[in-house]
Records
---
Amino acid sequence: METLTIAVDARGVARITMTRPEVFNAFNELMISELSQAVQHAQADPAVRVLVLAGAGKAFSAGADIEWMRRAAAASQEANLADARRFAEMLQRLAACPKPTVARIQGLALGGGVGLACACDIALASREAKFAVSEARFGILPAVIGPYLVNAVGLRQARRLALTASRIGADEALQLGLLQQVVDTPDDLDLALDAWVSELLACGPGAQAEIKALMGQLEVGPVTPEVRELTAQTIARVRSGDEAREGFAAFVGKRPAAWIHGKN
């Protein structure tokens, strides 16, 4: 790939790194296509347990490449719609991946870079990182990333971030729910990342896929009879499966479960 590198370690952690540091990993049509392909390939690879999304250089991602946006502004509405649909498909593929996803953030995360962070299950950043939903400064809006932003921080905070396009620090992003952890320096990110990965690898991969599928169907609000039936049907099906039997047997036998890397 031209805009990414992909490395899978012995634990089954696939690290997808955006490699356009000269433009702060801003993404264009090619990077969107390659990100979509990379997530699809990692999802299909049975050896992969966890996906990590990172950016090379000083920044995670400055969002949309300005040259890409200028080309889009000069294109027809039909071409713009096709372009936007490809971006929306990539974000949904990342968000709906049945394997856990972690964003590793340093430097800037702007516009679509915030969208990438929100589409991941877990996001951690160094304290110097800055975030902005910056689209309104260019006379556009965060439409495609909007649902992921709302899911991450709530409607009112998402509206505030989008309307003002103001930059916030990592500590405020943590408070809002955009991040799950802040570390002191970029050098601390990989140590923190390893701790999260260890927690994720200790859990059943089938259970994690079921968690993501179920929670993708739930909304904040009343627990209706339909929701209760969905949850009952899901746990009944999963509890009688092979992975659950192995998990219970491992607990009773005081041994690591079979899915834990390097354990039998």
---
Amino acid sequence: MRFQPDPSSVIAAEIAFNRLAQKKGQWTAFRETAAEDAVLFVPQKVVAKEWLKKQADPPKSVVWSPSIVYVACDGNVAASTGNWTRPDGSVGYFTTIWRRDRKGAWKWVLDHGDRLTAPRPAPEFLTGKVATCKRGQRPEGPPPMPVKGERPAPPPDESLLWTAEVAPDNSRRVTVKMWTGDAYETVIDDRVAAS
């Protein structure tokens, strides 16, 4: 399904995610907003739903806020990045990859971040950018057969691509690239050194 590529809806989802963490608890919020196939790093990549089942909420949640959001041109995938602060005063950054579910709600599919000695500069205003549509791209072979009563899935948009890699030494890298009409521009390149 194609949605409007609306960065403000992703900003709203990110803000609601943080509010839910403050109200109901950090890991409760993560559980309630995760896609079924969501992953996070602890420090190796794990299936979020399985890992989160065993986590008790801390007395106080991390507080976070997005700085910028990038959205695919079909409105189905997005990436947000911003700063977080722990109750002990330590700071860091996060990157979250979002995907719409069948009802159109944003669910996170990847959550990543790390500590910093000082927060990244925060913009005066939250901003959002929409990728340029890639025209004429179709997957190889015939389109998939739809399930009875459902529309066939559209071909992948590919205007916003992301990767998440973890090395055996626990160093990791998350990148997000956005199609500009001529080429892919790397808009997020998070790197965490070996632990």
---
Amino acid sequence: MLFLLNDVVFDLDEACPVTPGDARRFEKLGFDYVMELGCELFAEDPELHRNDPQRARRLAWLLHDREPGLNAALFAAPARDCPPELVEPRFCALPDAVLAELHGKARRGGLTPVAADLAVWNRLAA
């Protein structure tokens, strides 16, 4: 299963990013808690998806595990070490064909923040 986190496409099927023990610990966490966790992580490092892909992949797995239809998330932080309340989270369910196209573009080195925004988030449209 592919998951777009900001402008990086993760394949969540490659290997489970959490151990079975961790999965049991996480099962009580609700979606809102995982969203707040994502805001905190991206407040510390707005480039988490690039600087710590393992942690970002675990976050993507948790988001999808809490909301199985969800396959794309954006955490837009204005600056490093900003308050988590300033991080703007967005979520969506993309068609498989769109994710496959983005994944292919990423493998070719063409998935930039601007390309992901134009294809999915439309934050720069105005």
---
Amino acid sequence: MVNTVTITVPGTTSNVGPGFDCLGAALTLRNDFKFTPLQGEPECQIAVLGMEPGVIPGGRSQSIKLDSSNLVYQSFLKCYEYLEQSPPGVQIDMQVRVPFSRGLGSSATAIVGGLVGANALAGSPLTQDELVKLAIAIEGHPDNVVPALQGGCRLAATDAAGDWTICDVNWHPDVVPVVAIPDFEVSTEEARRILPKEYSRADAIFNMAHLGLLLRGLETGREDWIRSALQDRIHQPYRQSLITGFEAVQSAAIAAGAYGLVISGAGPTLLALTNPANASTVAIALSTAWNQQGISVQTKILQVDPQGAVVV
């Protein structure tokens, strides 16, 4: 067994408009997880540094404490359970940069960090396919954990047997993601609850067409295709009501040169896609529009990270 490993995992944006629960991209914003085996110590010791030192990344609730209920540690245990091995006691040190409960894949970094860290300590017996399967089983859907694990932009679908097929999606370098992270949270559970249980045939066809167009737009960088493709009828019309000032921020982003504005994950972070020349202007517009609603916001001009989880 190695003495210590550090896993760095990218945050993600998911859905990207019409790609509900199946499309996601890794972003240049990372959490780091250091795993040190303990001898004759408690089962786990956890320390958190960074943006929100009192909150566990991916903890799903601010009431989660620094104990064995932590999602990183629970994912660590799932790996050893899959390997049919007894887990070692472990010290987990986290450097947090992906904000908690904001729609940027914090829980995915926790799941992937725990799985990859355990696999590394065990001598890396698991394949990427096995790690993907475990990560999706823990998270429940693939759109965040797959790009967090593998990097880039990824589309996930099941085959006839129900197994996951992962497709890499080319993301043109002239398509720049700009995120606006407000100082409030949206509960993932509430964001799920607010969605209808059934959709019309027209809405299903609409989203299929726009997802296909979005994939081509991201690949080619064609502005007109992306502008049209970012429309959605599955989740955004319902979740907008949970995000204060959404329409004002959307209008400001488009006026500043964004191709469109979508909800990142379950929100409340909003994702604008634009070109390199307009990225700074769009970031300022996002911040100004939300400030005018009385909401503090942090904006970041990011890139799609081609690397997923990395063992340092």
